[in-house]
Amino acid sequence: MLNDIKKQRLSKKDYDENFDEIHPPLSEHEAYVEGDRCYYCYDAPCIEACPTGINIPLFIRQITSKNPEGAAKTIFDENILGGMSARVCPTETLCEEACVRNTGEDRPVKIGLLQRYATDSLMNSSNHPYKRSEDNGKKVAIVGGGPAGLSCAHRLSMRGYSVTIFDSKSKLGGLNEYGIAAYKSLDNFAERETKFVLSLGGIDYKLNTTIGKDLTLDQLKKDFDAVFLGMGLTGVNSLLVDGEDNNGIDDAVRYIEDIRQAKDLGELPVGRKVIVVPDRDAPGEKLINQAIEFGWNVAFPEWNDSITDVADAVSKYGRLFTIQSILKTTESSRFKIDLKRKMYG
Asked: Of residues 295 and 36, which shows the higher confidence score?
């Protein structure tokens, strides 16, 4: 089963093309033209649909008024990690789905790309939109250097708190650094965005430090005035089937992390024939898309089937499947995995 796992499946040119940016950024002219399509609604449904409540009509008007850095400030006021959000947020099911342009044209304003244009404009300049207040003498510990921890640290520092972030990884960034599909965030953007946040000042950090191993919560409560816990959800659900821990079987989080941290994608050993067992949400589609980009042999069944042993399925089918559902059977504690045809690309 493991005989056909090796490196350098594709040429460097193929790797570069396959992992190129999925949505290229807008040029200045394209941003002005796209922004001009916005109706600047008074009770804008796009704002209601935005999880962070960004004033979308305002920042688009600022772009069309040739003030992209002001637009970025409007975005960062609600979400200091607005640059990454512009790249990975499912705008097609949130703000863009709510855009009134869909009614007449079935084509929303490209809010995500306009947000990226604005945030990139400011981050590429030497200007930081915020200043740190005078030190208030209070210290806060933040456990977890992912999006929640970084956002919390930035806002606390703005108000004069001295912040220390503790993270178990060798880099800050959390999900943004380790868990975002490679084709959505290129050129070390997660690292650059983290540096942008830290450049405010007043934020220290300690890496390779795990709570419960290297220090305790009681110790943090003693040494700091407050503690913020932002560890995130980095684990994956177990399938509870035989063979899921066997050699040659990997989980989605570690797989995407390996891709994100690889200096040379060609050095990652991959199999020619692969089966993917995803959840019914975006992570499964990310895996499938990236599997295709690695040049794996992808085939989809015309039929339904069930398996209770992942290793047996890999050996038997040797193909890439998507999973319709994972249902617990009434006869035992095993899971039945229903395979259903679904086309991609």
From this structure: 36
In the prediction, which pLDDT does 333 show? 36
Query: Of all helices (H) and strands (E), which one includes residue 196?
Result: helix 189-198
User: Pick the residue with more confidence: 183 or 266?
Assistant: 266
| Nearest residue to 100 via CA among 62, 59, 57, 45 | 45
- Domain definitions of the chain by residue range: 21-123, 139-229, 237-339
Give the span between the Cα atoms of 323 and 315, in whole angstroms.
17
Which residue, 129, 24, 32, is CA-closest to 75? Answer: 129
Q: Does the structure show a pLDDT above 80 at 45?
A: yes
Q: pLDDT digits over 318-340, tens only?
A: 444 433 333 333 333 333 444 43
User: In this model, does residue 84 exceed pLDDT 70?
Assistant: yes
d(CA 211, CA 167): 9
Q: Give the pair of three-digit tokens for residue 119.
A: 């945030």
* Topology of domain 139-229, CATH: Rossmann fold (3.40.50)
- Fold for 21-123, please state it: Fumarate Reductase Iron-sulfur Protein; Chain B, domain 2 (1.10.1060)
Q: What pLDDT score does 49 carry?
A: 97
The DSSP string of 243-305 is TTTSTT---HHHHHHHHHH-S-GGGS-EESB------SSHHHHHHHHHHHHTT-B----SS-E
Rounded to a whole number, what is the distance in angstroms from the first to the last CA of the chain? 27
Alpha-carbon gap, residue 252 to 155, rounded angstroms: 32
**Is residue 2 a contact partner of residue 243, using CB atoms and an 8 Å limit?**
no
